[in-house]
């Protein structure tokens, strides 16, 4: 029998789905001696292995029930301890165990949000640029993206308000207010207040994705949008960057009626959740291990960020702006406004190919624009997952390649 033709079988939903450029770059660089500045991986040396070993024993000693099916919304002892985690200074999220659902990392939360709210053609407001993984989660539902202008402080409130006026049918705003992926930018307190007021004024919903606010190495914590407008904001959290991504534990905080809908949808995806990893996270929070771990992350990441910023200043031509954020994992490099005439001299795809051959990878910026024209001269550089030495080496290589292009043309 002939094998069924896959293209004839694929649902309209998924036909045409593109693979993540980041995954594609990872594949290209696998098993090669390439300095990867493209992923968003935490430093493995930061993983609290000894704590995990100890907590594993504690959880196993609880008895065999921990290996039983757990309910769809999550393992109750974790749900019970999460409000204290969520109320820490870096979030100040208002919650009870009743308005939280556990997800397999915040990536599953994004998939759920997409399925729950987006019909084909629905308008979704996103930061310009935004997190590629969110676009991937939303894309199978075929939304129409409205890109909201940003500056060095993230979303420009007037642009958001104008979007709500021009498109009253926008379903929600998706935003990463703290140490944004890909730019590292943080929306300051005064702007958050303005954004919360705009959401309330227009009766709009925002999805606030916050994987990074614990990874602050300097400056003051800023409360979440959710703390300012709990009826207008769904808040996403994850332990990927503050414990270890291998646990795949994150979640959604939302008004109770939203959580009920989310759990109904979740029943089709995972009628039961796994309790073991959730119990480890619950013990991690209860045991007060987070503060120490967050300090350790700062000690590792801050010098890497500094080294990357210094290397960019030294080795890149002075035609780029770049972000130096007070936390997170990324530096975003983009062509200065007054250097736009040089854009035609730099083909980002070509630059990436050459960089990989020379031993370093990055993510070209175009991947992060919802309605990309493909010619954005920008790149996302990750500093959390490479040694300081490799960071300098990688940046020097990219800088030399760019300089070569500018002098050739
Ligand atoms: C903004 C943002 N949201 C969500 C995620 C997904 O993280 P996870 O599924 O590991 O919680 C990431 C991962 O890098 C991210 O940067």
What descriptors fit this protein?
409 residues, alpha/beta, Aspartate Aminotransferase, domain 1, Aspartate Aminotransferase, domain 2, 2 domains, 7-stranded mixed β-sheet, 4-stranded antiparallel β-sheet, 41% helix, globular, binds pyridoxal-5'-phosphate
Can you describe this structure in just a few lines?
The protein is an alpha/beta fold and 409 residues long.
Largest β sheet strand count, sense and barrel closure: 7 strands, mixed
List the ions, cofactors and other small molecules found in this model.
pyridoxal-5'-phosphate
Number of domains: 2
- The average pLDDT score comes to 95
Give the count of helical stretches. Answer: 14
Distance between the termini: 56 Å
Strand order of the largest sheet: 3-11-10-9-8-4-5
CATH class of the largest domain: Alpha Beta
Q: Radius of gyration from the CA trace?
A: 22 Å
Which regions are unreliable across 5 or more consecutive residues at pLDDT < 50?
none
Q: What is the fourth-level CATH superfamily of the largest domain?
A: Type I PLP-dependent aspartate aminotransferase-like (Major domain)
CATH topology of the largest domain: Aspartate Aminotransferase, domain 2
How does the overall form come out from the CA principal axes? globular
Strand content: 5-15%
Q: What do these coordinates show?
A:
It is a single chain. This protein has 409 residues and is of the alpha/beta class. The chain folds into 2 domains: 6-47 and 294-408, Aspartate Aminotransferase, domain 1 (Alpha-Beta Complex); 64-288, Type I PLP-dependent aspartate aminotransferase-like (Major domain) (Aspartate Aminotransferase, domain 2, 3-Layer(aba) Sandwich). 41% of the residues lie in helices and 15% in strands. It has 14 helices and 17 strands. It has helices at residues 6-9, 21-29, 49-60, 76-86, 105-117, 132-138, 157-166, 189-202, 225-228, 256-269, 275-286, 290-315, 348-358, 388-408; strands at residues 35-36, 69-70, 100-103, 123-127, 144-148, 150-151, 154-155, 172-175, 205-209, 233-238, 250-253, 273-274, 320-322, 330-335, 360-361, 363-364, 378-382. A 7-stranded mixed β-sheet has the order 3-11-10-9-8-4-5, sandwiched between helices. It has a 4-stranded antiparallel β-sheet with strand order 13-14-17-16. β8 (172-175), α8 (189-202) and β9 form a beta-alpha-beta unit. The longest helix has 26 residues, at 290-315. It is globular. The termini are far apart. 44% of the residues are buried. It binds pyridoxal-5'-phosphate. Pyridoxal-5'-phosphate is lined by residues 40, 105-107, 131, 133, 176, 181, 209, 211, 238, 240, 245, 250.
């Amino acid at each position: 029998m002939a094998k069924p033709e896959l293209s004839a079988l694929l649902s309209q939903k998924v036909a045409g789905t593109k693979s993540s450029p980041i995954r594609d770059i990872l594949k290209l660089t696998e098993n090669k001696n390439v300095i990867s500045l493209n992923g968003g991986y935490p430093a493995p040396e930061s993983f609290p292995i000894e704590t995990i070993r100890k907590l594993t024993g504690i959880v196993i000693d609880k008895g065999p029930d921990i290996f039983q099916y757990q309910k769809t919304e999550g393992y109750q002892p974790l749900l019970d301890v999460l409000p204290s985690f969520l109320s820490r200074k870096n979030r100040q999220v208002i919650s009870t165990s009743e308005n939280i659902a556990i997800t397999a990392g915040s990536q599953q939360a994004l998939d759920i949000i997409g399925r729950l709210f987006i019909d084909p053609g629905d308008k979704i407001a996103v930061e310009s640029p935004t997190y590629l993984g969110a676009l991937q989660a939303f894309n199978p539902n075929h939304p129409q993206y409205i890109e909201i202008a940003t500056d060095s402080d993230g979303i420009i409130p007037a642009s958001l308000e104008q979007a709500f006026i021009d498109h009253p049918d926008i379903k929600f705003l998706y935003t990463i207010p703290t140490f944004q992926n890909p730019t590292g930018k943080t929306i300051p307190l005064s702007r958050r207040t303005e954004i919360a007021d705009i959401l309330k004024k227009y009766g709009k919903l925002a999805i606030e994705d916050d994987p990074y606010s614990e990874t602050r190495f300097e400056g003051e914590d800023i409360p979440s949008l959710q703390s300012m407008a709990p009826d207008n904001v769904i808040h996403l959290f994850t332990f990927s960057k503050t414990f270890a991504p291998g646990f795949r534990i994150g979640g959604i905080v939302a008004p109770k009626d939203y959580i009920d809908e989310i759990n109904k949808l979740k029943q089709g995806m995972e009628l039961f959740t796994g309790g073991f990893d959730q119990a480890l996270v619950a013990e991690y929070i209860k045991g007060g291990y987070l503060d120490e771990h967050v300090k350790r992350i700062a000690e590792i990441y801050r010098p890497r960020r500094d080294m990357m910023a210094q290397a960019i200043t030294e080795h890149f031509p002075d035609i780029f702006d770049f972000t130096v954020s007070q936390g997170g994992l990324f530096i975003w490099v983009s062509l200065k406004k007054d250097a736009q005439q040089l854009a035609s001299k730099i083909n980002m795809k070509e630059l990436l190919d050459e960089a990989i051959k020379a031993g370093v990878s990055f993510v070209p910026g175009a991947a992060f624009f919802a309605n990309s024209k493909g010619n954005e001269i920008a790149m996302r550089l990750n500093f959390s997952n490479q040694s300081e030495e490799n960071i300098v080496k990688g940046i020097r290589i990219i800088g030399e390649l760019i300089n070569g292009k500018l002098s050739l043309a």
